[in-house]
Design brief:
By secondary structure, this protein is an alpha+beta fold. It is 43% helix and 16% strand. The longest helix has 21 residues. The chain is elongated.
C-alpha cells in the first residue's frame, strides 16, 4: 500500500498532483478555506513554490493584522453512539484518564499501527 505524501512547511501541509496534459506538478495547502496553490516542473521546484506560497500567505496575513488559518488545530468533534460514549467514560474512569486522553490514546494506537 502506498502512503500519500504531503509537503510540509511551517505547520502547513500541501498536496502533490500531476497534470499529464500540461506536464506540470501542482498542489494546494490542504484543510484550509483559503486557497494557497503552487506548481513546478520538478519536485524541487514544487517544494520551493509551496514554501514561497506559504511565506506569501503568512506575510499577507501579517500585513493585514489577521490571524493565519492553521491546517490542523488539534481539536475536532467526534460523534459516537450513546452506548460507546458510556463505555468510554467507564474505561476512562477505570484507567484514571479523561475522555480526551482516552480518545487520544486510541487514535495514537490506530495511527502508529499503520
Amino acid at each position: 500500500m502506498t502512503k500519500q505524501q504531503l509537503l510540509s512547511y511551517k505547520g502547513y501541509h500541501g498536496s502533490v498532483e500531476y497534470s499529464l496534459e500540461d506536464g506540470v506538478l501542482y498542489g494546494q495547502v490542504v484543510d484550509m478555506s483559503s486557497l494557497i496553490s503552487y506548481e513546478g516542473t520538478t519536485i524541487t521546484e514544487l517544494r520551493a513554490d509551496f514554501e514561497r506560497a506559504v511565506d506569501a500567505y503568512l506575510a499577507e496575513c501579517a500585513a493585514h493584522h489577521e490571524q493565519p488559518e492553521r491546517s490542523y488545530t488539534g481539536s475536532f468533534n467526534v460523534r459516537v453512539t450513546p452506548q460507546l460514549h458510556h463505555e468510554l467514560a467507564l474505561y476512562a474512569q477505570a484507567h484514571h484518564l479523561s475522555l480526551n486522553a482516552s480518545v487520544r490514546r486510541a487514535i495514537e494506537g490506530m495511527v502508529t499501527a499503520g
